[in-house]
Amino acid sequence: MKIGKYIDNVSALQTFQVLRFSTLILIGIILVKSGYSKNEIGIYELFFFLSNVLSFFWMMGLKNALMSYYPSMEAEDQPKLLFNLGLVFFGLALIAGGLLFFFEDYIAYLIDKSQHIEYLGYIILYMVLTAPGSLVEFYYLLKEKNNEIIRYGIVIFSLQLLLVIVGVWNGFEIKDLLLLMVFWAGMKFVWFLVQMIQNGNYSLDFNIQRLFLFFSAPLILHMLLGNGMEYVDGFMVNYFYDEGIFAQFRYGARELPLVTILVGALTTAMIPLAVNDMDTSLATVKKKLSKLMYLLFPISIILILLSPILFPIVYSSEYKISAQIFNIYLLVISSRLLMPQVILFAQHNNIMLMISAFIELIANISLSIFLLKKIGITGIAWGTVGAYLINKLILIAYAYWRHKKHIKEYLNIKLYFSWLLLLVISYYISTLYN
C-alpha cells in the first residue's frame, strides 16, 4: 500500500517535519530524565546551536529559492540543478566549518566569553555531513515522491532516536552522544549520495551554480536577517547568563512544533504551485489554513494553560522558568498563520523579503535588549514575538500594494481573530498561577 495514494505533497512534508520535531522533543526528555546535569545538556544543545549558526541561513535560503526556481527551469536542466546544488551545499559547509575553526576564539567569546569551543571537530564534521543530507526531502518533494518523504523520515529519525537511547542506556558521556550524532549525520549524507547516483546526471555546471546562487542571494540574506533571531536570542542568553540558564531558555524557547511544522511545510509546498497558478494556490492556502486553525489554536490554548504544571513534571522543577518562556513563544502562532510570503516567493520578490527580514532583525534586537533590562530573560521571548509580527505586517502590506493581493484571499480573517482572542485570554489566565 503506497502512502502517496492518500496524502499530497503538503501532507507528506508536514508528516516529515512532525517526525523531526517529535524526535527532538523525545531526545530532550530522555537526556533530562537520564540524570545528565543542566550544564551537560547545555553542551549537547550548544553543539547543535553552533553547527547551525554558520549554515542555517544559506541552507534555508537556497532551499526556498529551489522551490520557486526549479519549476521555472527547462526539464533537461532540472536534474543538473539538483546535482550541482548538492556540490554547492557541500562546498559552503566546508567554508562554514573553516570559519568556525579559524575564528574559534572570537565565536567562543561571543557565546560565553571563553576562548575555546568544546568538541569543535565534531561540530565541524557534523555540519559538513548534514548540509547535503538535508536536501533529500526536498529532492523527493520536487520529484513528487510523497511516500518516499515519509519513509525517509521514519527511517532517519528512528535511527537518531535509537542511537541516543543506546548511548544513554550504556551510560555514554555527552562527548560520546555527540559522536553518535556525527555518525547519524553521516547516514544522511550517504542517503543523499544514493539519491544523486540514482538521479543519474553528474554534469558539473558552474554556470547553473552561478545563476542559481545569484538568484538565491537575497533569500539567503532574508533567512540570515529574519530566521536568525533564534540564534540572536541564544547569543544574548549566553552572554548575559550561564550555561544552565541557556539550557532552561532553549527548552522553553520553542514554538509549538506543529505550528512551524505544518505551516512551514504548507508554505514550502505551495511555492512551486503558486509560481504557475497564484489565485488557485492562494485559495488552497486559505482553505488549508482554516483547517489548521481548528487544530493549532486549541492545542496552543491547552498547552498555555497546562505548561506551568507539565514542565516541572516532564523535566524538573529547575525548568519552571522554561514554561513561562514557552508560553510566550506559543503566541508566535499569531504571525505564523499569516502567509503573504507565498506570494513574494512565487513572484521572485527576493529583495523585498530581504529588506523586511532586516527590519525584523533590528526590531528583535532592540525589543529584546530593552525588555531584557525591564523584565528579565522573558523579555527576549517577547522581543521575538513582536519582531515576527512586524515582519508579517510589512509583507502583507507589500503583497497588497505590489500585487493587489488582499489578506482575505489567503486568510479567513474572522476565524483568525476569533481564535486569537481566545489564545490571548488563555495566556492571561496562565500568568495567574505560573
Walk me through this protein's architecture.
The protein contains 20 helices and no strands. The chain has helices at residues 9-33, 38-53, 56-69, 78-102, 104-112, 120-133, 136-142, 146-169, 174-199, 206-225, 229-240, 243-252, 257-276, 278-314, 320-330, 333-336, 341-346, 350-375, 378-403, 413-431. The protein folds into two domains: 1-216, no CATH class; 226-434, no CATH class. By secondary structure, it is mainly α. Helix 12 packs across helix 15. The model has no long low-confidence stretch (mean pLDDT 84).
Summary of the model, kept short:
With 434 residues, this protein is mainly alpha-helical. The protein contains 20 helices and no strands. It starts with 8 loop residues before the first helix and ends with a helix.
Keywords for this structure?
single chain, 2 domains, globular, mainly alpha, 434 residues
Number of helices: 20
Structural class estimated from helices and strands: mainly alpha
Low-confidence stretches: none
State the helical fraction. over 70%
The major pleated sheet works out as:
none
Distance between the termini: 48 Å
Gyration radius (Cα, Å) is 21 Å
Q: What coarse outline follows from CA principal-axis ratios?
A: globular
Overall residue-averaged pLDDT value: 84
Residues in β-strands, percent: under 5%
What is the H/E order? HHHHHHHHHHHHHHHHHHHH
Number of domains: 2
